[in-house]
Amino acid sequence: MTIFIYDGTLEGFIDSLPYLWQNSNYGDKLQSISNQNPEFFTPSVTLFEKLTSPVQKPRSELFIKTSNTLLHCFSSKDSQALELAPSFLNYMKKTGTTGFTHLADPSVDAVMKSARKTLSEAHKLKGLLRFRQIRSILYGPYFSKNFVLPILGRHFKKRLPNLQWLLHDTEHKTGLFYNGETLIQAFFDDSKALELEKIYEQAGIEDDFEKLWIKYFNTISIRERYNPKLQRSFMPKQYWRYLPEVANR
Prior knowledge:
Layout: E1 3-6, H1 10-23, E2 29-32, E3 44-46, H2 47-50, H3 61-75, H4 79-82, H5 85-95, H6 106-128, E4 132-134, E5 137-142, H7 149-159, E6 165-169, E7 174-178, E8 183-187, H8 190-206, H9 208-220, H10 228-234
Helix pairs in contact: 1-3, 3-5, 3-6, 6-7
């Protein structure tokens, strides 16, 4: 068994995948430098020192699909599942695409569960994310446990291709700005986030369409069938901060 150490960043993780695909074995482990857990008599490889030049990425559809699954696993921040990445890569290389359903294998089970957490939250936010008009830009702040920003960016680029918008992941203090052509990553320190929060609140007060939407939401609800437990199953309360129709409840 070999322990592979990467720098803990998304870029470092992506760069490590082609190398692990070609050079790791089933049973090896992947750990970030911050979560490193050395084991006596177990050799280790520091990837960010070894990979001084990019490793050529395999072009097979199997590698691409396996890598995308691991990226969704990375976005869930599940370090225990990520530790099994070398085993998952080797298992998929051995079994092919049918391996994604082999949940009896520990590495497949752990990675797929973590990947599904990311995809499930992204699916919810595609429907729950609300934009507010701030000058000429649509501003969409949201909370997420998993890092779903890349998935949401691709989604809204297709849905709103002719508009300028900004997605703001308030939990991870980053975002994506779309200028009508390309996606540009943005970062927000505490002062900038506070400034945007004030502008966001003021925009909500002045937005007549949002007031109309809240009135519509309240009007169509049937008081006798009010079921807050069922509502929270479809609209988890952790997202309510940026849902104007329920934010003040």
